[in-house]
Amino acid sequence: MSNVYDVRPTEVAYPLLTRGSDYMRVDLLSQDTAVGLADEVLRLVVASYSEQFENRTKQLPQGTFAETYDTDAKREKFRDQVIPGVYERGGSYLAVRQPDSHQRLAGVLKVLPGAAIEDRFADMAAIAEVLTDPQSQGQRIGSAMIHTHLMLQEPDVRGVVLDAFIGNPVNEWYERMGLEYETHTEPLTFVNGQELASRYMVTAPGKKALHVAHYLMTQVPSLQYPVARFKHKQSGANEAQ
Asked: Rounded CA gap, 231 and 145, in Å?
């Protein structure tokens, strides 16, 4: 299966998007780096979804995500199987780190080639998961990560597809980006027997991935000025593009 990016920078930085910093940096994580941050990524899974579905919408009882995911067995599986599996399918993780700690994450985006979702999405940019630390919400971290992902797509990519949990408040934001509800997907089942239903959301006919990226730039003007850094294969030095 082809990789999600033909050209892969090590990071993309956006001006004046962060607290006490000139730039917000979106890192494109290598597999080894993502594996090393596995516990932190899983922490964001629990923290982000607990905030959305246990605290805000009350769709799930308190502690549902922690009970399901915050275990030694789940952390080991996440590190040794889940994250490597994303890269084996041609996907990747993008991340924004906390400004005071290189090992703490403020946001994570999991992306896959469209064909890894379903064959009919082969020419689409796929977003598998958008996670933001509740303490870092409101800082446009999700916008920056999604914009980075979409701007790295080939111009002929037909559109965007993502798997969205029904009832998630962020779905209204996806609708403003031009995505529409489509078919139902398999629900997520928790150890306490609770379930979260989900559906694909896809861009309307005629809307390409770059159209969504441009919409994000109208909402967050700083996204118009990205600085990408690429690693030379020979020297290992970074070069701004």
From this structure: 20
Q: Is there a domain that residue 4 lies in?
A: no
47 and 63 in contact (C-beta within 8 Å)?
no
**Which whole-number Å values give the CA distances from 95 to 34, 41, 200, in the listed order?**
9, 9, 23
Residue 202 CA to residue 174 CA, distance in Å, equals 9
Q: Which two tokens stand for residue 75?
A: 């952390």
Which among 63, 39, 28, 37 has a CA at the least distance from the CA of 49? Answer: 63
Q: How many residues make up the chain in this entry?
A: 241
Rounded CA-CA distance 48/60 in Å is 13
> Is residue 48 assigned to a domain?
yes
Residue 189: both structure tokens together: 């089942």
Range of the domain at 128: 11-231
Question: Is residue 38 in some structural domain?
Answer: yes
**Angstrom distance (rounded) from CA 35 to CA 31:** 6
Q: 115: domain CATH number? A: 3.40.630.30
Q: How confident is the model at residue 204 (pLDDT cuts 50, 70, 90)?
A: confident
Give the pTM: 0.90
Q: How many domains does the chain have?
A: 1
| 218 has pLDDT over 60 | yes
Q: What is the pLDDT of residues 77-104, one digit of tens each?
A: 999 999 999 999 999 999 999 988 888 9
Residue 25's DSSP bridge partners are: 13
pLDDT score of 241: 36
In a domain, residue 132? The reply is yes
Distance of CA 116 to the CA centre of its chain: 15
Whether the CB-CB separation of 66 and 152 falls below 8 Å is answered with no
